[in-house]
Amino acid sequence: MTAVEDIPTIEVEKSPDERRAALAQAVAQLEARGHTVEPRPDYQRVLVGHNPFREVLVHKRFGLRRYELVDVDKTGKVSVRDI
């Protein structure tokens, strides 16, 4: 008998439309909490590059800016990282 840990997991790649939808949903949730999309195109160009599944958000609080990178990988998993 094999243990549950021994069974390999198969990660299915999501379509580009599903990945864009996941990114849009994550950005909308963060915008509802007070984040805004980075308005400066040079920041977007340098931090995101040509990846359509990334977005840079800014959270302004008490005069300080905090930048976060929202990224969707090939399996549709959304990650938010401070940059």
Helix share bin: 25-40%
Quaternary form: single chain
First CA to last CA: what distance?
A: 46 Å
| Strands side by side in the biggest sheet | 1-2-3-4
Poorly predicted runs of 5 or more residues: none
Average pLDDT metric: 86
Counted by DSSP, the helix tally is 2
Can you summarize the main beta sheet?
Answer: 4 strands, antiparallel
Instruction: Please state the overall shape, judged from the principal axes of the Cα atoms.
Output: elongated
Query: What fraction strand?
Result: 25-35%
Helices and strands: which structural class?
Answer: alpha+beta
Instruction: Give the number of DSSP strands.
Output: 4
What sequence of helices (H) and strands (E) makes up the elements? HEHEEE
Radius of gyration computed on alpha carbons? 16 Å
